[in-house]
Every structure is written in C-alpha cells, then in structure tokens.
C-alpha cells in the first residue's frame, strides 16, 4: 500500500486494494490452486499431521509465484499483521468467487480500468 494514502479501517475498505493486486488472471489461478492444495492439506492433517506444515508452503508458495512472476508486485500480506489477516480473508473470498465464476467480473467492477494497484479512498466495496 502506498504510504501517502490513508490505511483502510476495515476489510471491506481493504478489499478493493486486494483486488487491485490480483488483476493478472494467472496470478489469481495460482492463488486458487495454492489455496485448494492448502485446504486439502488441512483436511487430511488430522490423519497425517505433517500435512498441516505443508499447507502454508503450498498456499503461499503458489501465491508468491503469481505475484512475483505474473503480477509483478509484492504480496498484500506483507503489509503487517492486519494486512496479513485481511489478505488471508481476501484469499478465501477470491477462492470462493473463482469457484463460482465471479472473480473476473469482480476485478472489472472494483478496478474499473485503473491498473496502478493503489488503494483509493472511496473505492467500490464488495
């Protein structure tokens, strides 16, 4: 997030920034795959506890590849504890919207053609 703009005070204010950092479809697809693998790891972890350790590696590994290689930006989760928590919540919302086939339209609705990735006060909220 840019230091010259006010920090969002809620997840709903953070969501437009999160979406702006996930405009590249390949980046979003890598998030989806990584989150799916992470959820699978957590699902089997009661039966195979080491799988719980693989969950963040799979989830964040795929997401970071998406950010560094395709989106060419820094993961939103690196903005501190609040940004980390909101980014995880954003990952889960994006995963759900992708599963429903609604994320491409959400990117267009929220970003609306501005591709600079900065958070803007008063931006549309999900």
Describe what you observe in this structure.
This protein has 126 residues and is mainly alpha-helical. 63% of the residues lie in helices and 0% in strands. The longest helix has 22 residues. The chain is globular. The chain starts with 10 loop residues before the first helix and ends in a 15-residue tail after the last helix.
From the structure above, extract its key features.
5 helices, single chain, mainly alpha, 126 residues, disordered C terminus
Compose a concise summary of this entry.
With 126 residues, the chain is mostly helical. It is 63% helix and 0% strand.
Rounded mean pLDDT score? 86
**Helix-strand category:** mainly alpha
Unreliable stretches: 114-126
Oligomerization: single chain
N-to-C CA distance: 19 Å
Instruction: Determine the fraction of residues in helical runs and give it as a percent range.
Output: 55-70%
Query: How many β-strand runs?
Result: 0
The major β-sheet equals:
none
């Amino acid at each position: 997030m840019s230091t010259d703009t006010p920090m969002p005070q809620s997840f709903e204010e953070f969501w437009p920034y999160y979406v702006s950092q996930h405009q590249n479809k390949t980046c979003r697809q890598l998030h989806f795959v990584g989150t799916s693998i992470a959820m699978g790891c957590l699902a089997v972890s009661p039966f195979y506890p080491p799988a719980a350790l693989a969950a963040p590696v799979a989830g964040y590994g795929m997401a970071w590849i998406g950010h560094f290689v395709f989106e060419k930006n820094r993961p939103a989760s690196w903005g501190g504890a609040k940004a980390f928590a909101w980014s995880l919540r954003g990952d889960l919302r994006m995963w759900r919207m992708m599963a429903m086939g609604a994320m491409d339209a959400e990117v267009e609705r929220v970003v609306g053609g501005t591709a600079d990735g900065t958070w803007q006060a008063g931006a549309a909220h999900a």
